[in-house]
DNA sequence: CGGAGTGTTGATAAGAGTCAATACTAGTGG
DNA sequence: CCACTAGTATTGACTCTTATCAACACTCCG
């Protein structure tokens, strides 16, 4: 197997805090780390949801498949993001590591137990679910009504908000991943990026095609029509 | 104004129960009814969310608009459905009555107050939000990856589950509404329905085009590829 | 260096959109 | 009650965006 198991330090970093747990409210929640190689599955659709995950390093894609192989990526999970949070017992997406990825694991059951008594934790669960819902709602508008250029512009702006360490954005995902996120083909994504390049809105850095510089955020925002 | 205001009977019907409230847990939550005429707005996007709603009779569409008028309907709310539940302070959709519609109103604040103390209510809020999330996730797959025929088939099956009083389904919404829900044009929806009619999968009842009979659910499910 | 994986670009096809004509339905008022 | 009208639905002809198929280029590894 490709898994490397390590025990987390006892001084909690920030994952439990993200659920609104204070050090006093819950002393011991199983907290481990796993590392997944590029392209490996973290969990499958309809598998029982035993853990909730937080990305420590790397990037993850969550997707659904139709029976003939068509794929729709519902979300990308980047460093710090929590994913795999389901209310029912089973996962509604398949999650895969896009690149080598280390995640923190929280047992779902321990989380639920705490939520039963701690209203603060319960509220945070609701808040996180609501954020996911809001993202899905915005994405429905993109998938249902935006043109290919608008979709790619929206994608770049979203990633800029979430990744941009500096002016340059290092995308972990391939053109195919972007296409399956935006409901397009990889060729259409490539053409849209070329077009934005011609227009002087974005630039490519170095010799890789995944390092993108946003030269004109203003114009990108104009291309991506807002609601 | 088009509003008719009535006070609800003191014996709670089922709306508060839907939030997990027992008669003992909370005696008084403001509970009123409003009636909206066909086509009128119940609330607008970005308006502050003062109430949560439950459809008593009628039907509601929730949608987002792009600046140039393109519309994406995120959900239809039918009898019994609760909508307008936002975590943030403001609505993320515009809600309109599709036909004359009566709703029950619950003050958002009173709901929040109860949720702070009553874990049961908080859990029900989470559960409802999760159901909305699940619907949005499934709809992303439809919008991103399904063909027009698959979308219309999926729509009919969804409505069949939710409306079908008998074998016949009386759709409250127009072809345009269906189109904006499925990310298509009304012409494409009409053609898909005609095609399903030719194929003997559905039938039209009486002299209206909105009464549809599902003649072959099996084949409909085959057309709508599942994940 | 070689080969697999990834990305770009071009030619063509197909599905859905647009525009337009017509039919059907429901609501209005004489 | 019927005729008129506005709104809604269907269908056809044509266009356009995006998908598909294919060739080629680049990059990252071993």
UniProtKB/TrEMBL annotation, chains A, B:
Gene3D superfamilies: Jelly Rolls, Winged helix-like DNA-binding domain superfamily/Winged helix DNA-binding domain. The keyword DNA-binding applies. The keyword Transcription applies. InterPro entries: cNMP-bd_dom, cNMP-bd_dom_sf, Env_Response_Regulators, HTH_CRP, RmlC-like_jellyroll, Tscrpt_reg_HTH_Crp-type_CS, WH-like_DNA-bd_sf, WH_DNA-bd_sf. It holds the Pfam family cNMP_binding. GO terms for molecular function: DNA binding; DNA-binding transcription factor activity. Keywords: DNA-binding, Nitrogen fixation, Transcription, Transcription regulation. GO terms for cellular component: cytosol. Residues 146-218 form the HTH crp-type domain. SUPFAM superfamilies: cAMP-binding domain-like, Winged helix' DNA-binding domain. SMART domains: cNMP (SM00100), HTH_CRP (SM00419). CDD domains: CAP_ED, HTH_CRP. This is Transcriptional regulator. It comes from Bradyrhizobium forestalis.
């Amino acid at each position: 197997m490709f898994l490397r198991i390590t025990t987390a330090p006892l001084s909690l970093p920030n994952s439990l805090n993200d659920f609104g747990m204070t050090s006093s409210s819950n002393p011991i929640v199983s907290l481990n780390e796993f590392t997944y190689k590029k392209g490996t599955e973290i969990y499958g659709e309809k598998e029982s949801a035993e853990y909730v995950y937080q990305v420590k390093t790397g990037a993850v894609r969550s997707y659904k498949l139709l029976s003939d192989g068509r794929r729709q990526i519902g979300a990308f999970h980047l460093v710090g993001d929590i994913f795999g949070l389901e209310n029912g017992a089973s996962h509604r997406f398949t999650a895969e590591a896009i690149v080598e990825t280390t995640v923190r694991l929280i047992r779902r059951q321990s989380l639920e137990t705490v939520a039963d008594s701690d209203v603060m934790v319960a509220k945070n669960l609701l808040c996180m679910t609501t954020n996911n819902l809001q993202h899905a709602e915005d994405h429905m508008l993109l998938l249902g009504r935006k043109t290919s250029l608008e979709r790619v512009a929206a994608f770049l702006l979203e990633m800029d908000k979430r990744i941009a360490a500096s002016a340059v954005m290092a995308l972990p995902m391939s053109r195919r991943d972007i296409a399956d996120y935006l409901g397009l083909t990889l060729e259409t994504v490539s053409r849209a990026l070329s077009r934005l390049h011609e227009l002087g809105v974005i630039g490519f850095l170095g010799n890789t095609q995944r390092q993108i510089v946003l030269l004109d955020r203003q114009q990108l925002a104009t291309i991506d029509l807002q609601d």
